[in-house]
Write a structure and sequence with these properties.
Bound molecules: NADPH dihydro-nicotinamide-adenine-dinucleotide phosphate
Strand order of the largest sheet: 14-15-16-13-12-17-18
CATH architecture of the largest domain: 3-Layer(aba) Sandwich
Structural class: alpha/beta
Length: 476
């Protein structure tokens, strides 16, 4: 596939391409251009040319294009999901969820496009003021490989509705579904240049995008180290920044919780997308009084999960997205074992056997009695490994939950409203779920505290972040 600049497909000037490999089979699916700083400059120019016309359209007109794109996505969701599974690895039903989730986001923003926005402020003898919102300009969006479709939706929905134009850089291992969605948005009626997509390596295309002075806002989702680098690069131009970074979400299960429901929550919360989700359950704290029963049930359910090619009808867990990811996970578990920092209750290794040789599979793993300074607790583990710790009371659970540099999400499983209030007040995170984990609907703002990032995506809040106020002051 080629990149998209100014509504056209563009091949790399120097004919250098990046292979896109199926992480389950090792097969080449397609290749995309290894774009350059020159391609980024062309894309930014196209987006700048398209900006004025796009900004002048009414919100409702922009919303209708998003709505039409969502309709096309729904019609073609099976093909899109299959492509997503092939490049990313996730089970097909999760890919279908993600593609439908993308359509939901576009529909949410299309849905609010008809609502009046702005404020009129009466200031007595001084006059009256009219406050409206204006788009920021050309925005840059950098997308990771773990949820490439959903995260593209989080950025394109509000940015485009607010009247901005975009240059997007997809992750190098998962550019194909994103390029297909970019073509669908053009087909739905986006004027040429409103949405551009430049493929290529983060260090080249990503950095060129952040450095380009024509870019007025950057929205980045990825790991903390890259986020820090982007913050450094962007600071020289006083750019607006949204950084959605890593997470190490705690799940707290109290002794009054519905144990079976919490077991299912932990299973989905940790093993969805092979554990490669920013808001996955990455640390589980269970009350001493129910720990034995809870852990036994969780082990039974974990052992029943099927690992395999995401296109297989019975697959619950697909491969990790790359050999590096697989190695990183294997190393973290080995280190914990060698140092005696936890007991591997089940799993704890690369999946072996002929059917698995070509892919990056890892057994779903539970580790108990984990030391608080184990890397499974202190680092973000982006794979199917769950450390489970038992705690004597809620205060200890909250202290453990907060003993992290991250603050993305957290959940508490209980029937007690006072427990809910205490967790909500005291746990540091951007979202607290009760008897649930992982769900991030487009209606509610999403983003972290501490090293999990700055800014919010989704909801009306994201629309605010892709626009700024302008005031007309009338001194009669
Ligand atoms: P990376 O930061 O490595 O990559 C993310 C994107 O940034 C890719 O498109 C990558 O390109 C690009 N990139 C890499 N280096 C640079 C650079 N120097 N300048 C500009 N762009 C660059 O993230 P991971 O692959 O590690 O993604 C997983 C991370 O994302 C996890 O930490 C996860 O928690 C986090 N995440 C956070 C979410 C949130 O909302 N808070 C949601 C989902 C994930 P290329 O692919 O070419 O390397």
């Amino acid at each position: 596939m080629k990149m998209r600049i100014g509504g056209k497909e563009v091949a790399p000037a120097d004919d250098v391409w990046i292979d896109v490999i199926n992480p389950a089979t090792g097969e080449l699916i397609d290749r995309v251009p290894a774009g350059s700083a020159g391609d980024v400059a062309d894309a930014v120019s196209s987006a700048a040319e398209a900006f004025d016309g796009w900004k002048k359209k009414g919100m409702r007109e922009r919303g209708m294009i998003l709505f039409h794109a969502a309709e096309i996505v729904r019609e073609r969701h099976k093909d899109l999901a299959r492509l997503l599974t092939m490049e990313q690895g996730k089970p097909l039903r999760e890919a279908i969820d993600e593609v439908r989730g993308y359509a939901n986001i576009l529909e949410f923003y299309a849905g609010i496009s008809a609502q009046p926005s702005g404020d009129a402020v009466r200031l007595g003898a001084s006059g009256d003021a009219l406050v409206v919102r204006e788009p920021v300009g050309v925005c840059g969006a950098i997308i990771p490989w773990n949820m490439p479709v959903l995260i593209m939706g989080w950025k394109t929905g509000p940015a485009l509705l607010a009247g901005n134009t975009l240059v997007i850089k997809p992750a190098s291992s998962t550019p194909l579904t994103s390029l297909t969605l970019a073509a669908i948005l053009d087909e739905a009626g986006l004027p040429p240049g409103v949405l551009n997509m430049v493929t290529g390596r983060g260090g080249d295309v990503g950095e060129a995008l952040v450095r380009n002075p024509g870019i007025k806002k950057i929205s980045f989702t990825g790991n903390c180290t890259t986020g820090e680098r982007i913050r450094e690069l962007a600071s020289s131009h006083l750019r607006d920044l949204t950084l959605e970074l890593g997470g190490s979400d705690p799940m707290i299960v109290m002794d009054d919780a519905d144990i079976d429901k919490a077991v299912e929550g932990a299973l989905r919360g940790r093993f969805y997308n092979a554990g490669q989700t920013c808001t996955a359950v990455k640390r589980l704290y269970v009350h001493d009084r129910i720990a034995k029963e809870f852990i036994a049930k969780l082990k039974t359910r974990t052992d029943a999960l099927n690992v395999g090619n995401g296109l297989g009808p019975k697959t619950d867990i697909g491969p990790l997205n790359s050999a590096e990811q697989q190695e990183r996970i294997a190393r973290a578990v080995e280190r914990t074992r060698e140092r005696g920092e936890g007991t591997v209750l089940t799993g704890g290794g690369i999946v072996r056997g002929k059917a698995y040789e070509t892919g990056h599979f890892y057994h779903p793993t539970l580790v108990t009695d984990v030391a608080p300074d184990s890397c499974l607790v202190t680092e973000e583990i982006f794979g199917p490994v769950l450390p489970v710790m038992s705690v004597p009371d809620l205060n200890t659970a909250i202290a453990c939950a907060n003993a992290s540099r991250y603050g993305l999400g957290a959940s508490v499983w209980t029937k007690n409203i006072s427990t809910v209030k205490k967790v909500f007040d005291e746990v540091q995170a951007g979202i607290i779920w009760v008897n649930r984990h992982l769900t991030v609907p487009p209606e509610v703002p999403f983003g972290g505290t501490r090293e999990s990032g700055i800014g919010r995506e989704n909801g009306y809040h994201a629309l605010d972040q892709y626009s700024r106020t302008k005031t007309l002051f009338l001194g009669w």
